[in-house]
């Protein structure tokens, strides 16, 4: 109840009182004050006895209190506020007590009243009636701030609490009626004189003053217990009317049916009506909100249905388009798969052709190397020997005949022919590669490079006893030979270095020079096949070549050639590698045939 800013702002019991509500309540209080001031001087004027006024007035009070209690219990079912339950119990108690007061009032239903009433019964029931409600209001004012977390869920049953509230109010009202009738002798008299024109006693003044003080205390408590809801504001108005009712009915008037008697009952009826009126207006507003909400919901539902129809149509169109697109994509996918299959077949055929070309190139290269080896061997073993023998024979002839001077030129030509034949044989196929291996051939190649071009050249071989099978050995030698030839012809270098290293599963050949270098992005010159020859020879043994060069910083050529599996697993399986190589050569010879 103290949380007036929670989500239940639609109820007067939780809605914070604003300036407009305060001004309206103050205006109502001012009207009651003005009416009190105007009627107070004439309170003791005796008016005609209208016996029907009592049942009409109290019936209206009972109906108003019962309706107010019903509306408050309805709010309690929603908010589960203890303060609202206590306040509803207070209104039930006033309704039941007012009913007992009506039944016991003398002259209405009988001369002395029902329920075994006596002359003082209605006076004491009036005190119980007007004294109990302010006590309930005080309890409400204390509970409304302590009830900080009203339950808005259905976890706690409210029917037992409501039934208990009704039973409690009925029992208290029955106790009041019993005390005012059966316990008549225990209570001091408030009236004296004849029954039709009784006078108030001192006890009556004291009791009414105490009752009026309790009502004033209830008003002060309501003012003190902030914050104020709209319901709190109208309970203050009710308490003010209650004070004027007690002042007229018990203090200012002289006897029954004078002006104070009638005006006090009218104030009591107004006090019972104020909260009922505002709660009724609240319910009307709530119903109006519900109707507007239902209209809005109906409009939204109609709009949602229209949107749903449009969405369904769009969904159907989208599904149709998706189906058409799916069919098109399926056909395109099928064509794409066929194209991929054709391309894979073409790639497989191309790769197969590449392998065949590589094999053919390897066979051609091997055949060329074998032919070069044969020619070089014949040049070295036959032609060189023949030329050397011819020179010896010529020397013998020149010594016997005395033709040394005449045959000197022939001697010189024969010497040049022997040197040229040996150089040609070495260029075709260095016999040291076949006789002593790759390391000796590389060392011979470096020495020959130094002699021919006058360029310092270092050779690094790791391990020193490195040995390769064919065709890797020939490929490495030819790549070194072509690289040094390019350095001697084009690099203008003063120093070069060859590094031949064996890694775990490959051979790494690095050729470096400190020459002029060149721009790799520049177009290749016509009839320049040096680098292409390197790549071609590496390709034949499944190797790859990388070249790093820039003008002015020299050139670095790195060649990576994979080793056969037998070379990776064991370096001592030379015989097995030779057997494999012979098998390959036999297959190549069969293909060539």
Set out the fold topology.
Layout: H1 19-39, H2 53-79, H3 82-104, H4 121-146, H5 159-181, E1 191-192, E2 199-200, H6 202-224, H7 230-252, H8 259-401, H9 404-428, H10 431-435, H11 438-453, E3 456-462, H12 472-491, E4 495-502, E5 506-513, H13 530-540, E6 544-549, E7 555-562, H14 565-569, H15 574-592
Parallel strand pairs: 3-4
Antiparallel strand pairs: 1-2, 4-5, 5-7, 6-7
Helix pairs in contact: 1-7, 2-3, 2-8, 3-4, 3-5, 4-5, 4-6, 4-7, 6-7, 7-8, 8-9, 11-12, 12-13
What this model shows, in words?
This protein has 593 residues and is α+β, with helices and mostly antiparallel strands. Among the domains are: 19-297; 437-562, 2-Layer Sandwich (Heat Shock Protein 90), CATH 3.30.565. The chain has 15 helices and seven strands. It has helices at residues 19-39, 53-79, 82-104, 121-146, 159-181, 202-224, 230-252, 259-401, 404-428, 431-435, 438-453, 472-491, 530-540, 565-569, 574-592; strands spanning 191-192, 199-200, 456-462, 495-502, 506-513, 544-549, 555-562. The strands form two sheets. A five-stranded mixed sheet has the order 3-4-5-7-6, with helices on one face. A hairpin with a 5-residue loop joins strand 6 and strand 7 (555-562). Helix 1 packs parallel to helix 7 (230-252) and helix 3 runs parallel beside helix 5 (159-181).
């Amino acid at each position: 109840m103290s949380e007036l800013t929670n989500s239940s702002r639609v109820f007067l019991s939780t809605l914070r009182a604003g300036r407009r509500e305060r001004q309206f309540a103050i205006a109502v209080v001012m009207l009651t004050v003005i009416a009190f001031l105007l009627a107070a001087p004439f309170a003791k004027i005796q008016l005609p006895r209208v016996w029907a006024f009592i049942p009409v007035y109290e019936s209206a009070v009972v109906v108003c209190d019962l309706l107010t209690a019903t509306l408050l219990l309805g709010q309690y079912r929603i908010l589960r506020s203890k303060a609202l339950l206590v306040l509803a119990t207070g209104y039930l108690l006033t309704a039941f007590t007012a009913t007992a007061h009506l039944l016991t009032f003398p002259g209405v239903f009988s001369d002395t009243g029902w329920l075994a009433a006596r002359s003082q019964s209605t006076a004491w029931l009036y005190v119980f009636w007007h004294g109990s409600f302010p006590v309930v209001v005080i309890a409400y004012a204390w509970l409304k701030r302590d009830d900080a977390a009203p339950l808005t869920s259905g976890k706690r049953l409210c029917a037992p609490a409501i039934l208990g509230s009704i039973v409690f109010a009925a029992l208290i009202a029955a106790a009041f009626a019993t005390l005012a009738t059966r316990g008549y002798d225990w209570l001091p008299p408030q009236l004296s004189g004849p029954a039709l024109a009784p006078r108030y006693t001192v006890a009556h003044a004291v009791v009414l003053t105490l009752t009026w003080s309790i009502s004033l205390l209830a008003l002060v408590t309501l003012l003190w217990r902030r914050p104020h809801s709209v319901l709190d504001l109208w309970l203050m108005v009710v308490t003010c009317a209650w004070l004027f009712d007690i002042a007229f009915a018990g203090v200012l008037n002289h006897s029954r049916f004078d002006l104070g008697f009638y005006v006090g009952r009218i104030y009591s009826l107004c006090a019972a009506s104020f909260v009922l009126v505002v709660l009724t207006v609240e319910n009307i507003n709530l119903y109006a909100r519900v109707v507007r909400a239902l209209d809005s919901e109906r409009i939204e539902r109609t709009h949602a249905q229209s949107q749903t129809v449009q969405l369904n149509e769009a969904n159907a169109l989208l599904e149709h388009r998706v189906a058409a697109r799916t069919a098109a994509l399926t056909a395109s996918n099928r064509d794409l798969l066929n194209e991929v299959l054709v391309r894979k077949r073409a790639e497989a055929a191309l790769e197969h052709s590449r392998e065949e070309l590589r094999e053919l190139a390897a066979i051609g290269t091997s055949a060329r190397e074998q032919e070069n080896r044969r020619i070089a061997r014949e040049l070295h073993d036959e032609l060189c020997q023949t030329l050397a023998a011819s020179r010896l024979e010529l020397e013998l002839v020149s010594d016997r005949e005395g033709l040394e001077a005449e045959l000197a030129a022939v001697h010189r030509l024969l010497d040049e022919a022997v040197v040229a034949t040996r150089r040609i044989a070495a260029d075709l196929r260095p016999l040291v590669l076949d006789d002593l291996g790759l390391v000796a051939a590389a060392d011979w190649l470096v020495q020959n490079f130094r002699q021919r071009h006058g360029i310092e050249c270092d050779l690094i071989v790791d391990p020193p006893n490195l040995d390769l099978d064919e065709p890797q050995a020939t490929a490495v030698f030819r790549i070194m030979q072509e690289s040094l030839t390019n350095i001697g012809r084009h690099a203008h270098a003063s120093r070069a270095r060859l590094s031949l290293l064996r890694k775990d599963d490959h051979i790494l050949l690095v050729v470096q020079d400190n020459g002029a270098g060149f721009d790799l992005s520049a177009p290749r010159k016509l009839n320049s096949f040096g680098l292409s020859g390197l790549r071609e020879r590496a390709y034949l043994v499944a190797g790859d070549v990388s070249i790093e060069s820039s003008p002015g910083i020299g050139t670095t050529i790195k060649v990576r050639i994979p080793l056969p599996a037998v070379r990776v697993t064991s370096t001592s399986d030379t015989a097995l590698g030779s057997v494999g190589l012979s098998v390959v050569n036999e297959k190549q010879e069969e293909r060539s045939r």
